[in-house]
Amino acid sequence: MNVRGVYKDCAAATGRKKVMNLIANEKTHAILRTETADAYLKAGTEITIQETRLHTSGNLWAKIPSGWLCIWEKNIDKTFVK
User: Fold this and answer.
1) CA–CA distance from 21 to each of 55, 77, 80 (Å)?
2) Which residues contact 24 (CB under 8 A, 6 or more apart)?
3) Whole-prediction pTM value?
4) What is the pLDDT of residues 31-81, one digit of tens each?
5) Which residues of 4-41 are buried (b: 16+ CB within 10 A; e: fewer)?
6) How far apart are CA 12 and CA 21, in angstroms?
């Protein structure tokens, strides 16, 4: 996986979650571990996908235990997870 921001819902407009809102395992893979920092997971982090959703923007989002990640961006045709 590439570096990915963790969002409140399946759209960037919903805003990023804070590190303090991640589950313990995901906190250990956060780029910054300051509790009030925006939550980004490091490249190479293994994730558990609970659900996927295609947003109206055309981007594909995945629900993980702590929030949502964009896993494919339509406008650049790039996949961020393996």
Assistant:
1) 23, 30, 22
2) none
3) 0.89
4) 988 899 999 999 999 999 999 999 999 999 999 999 999 999 999 999 998
5) bbbbeebbeeeebbebeebeeebbebbbeeeeeebbbb
6) 17
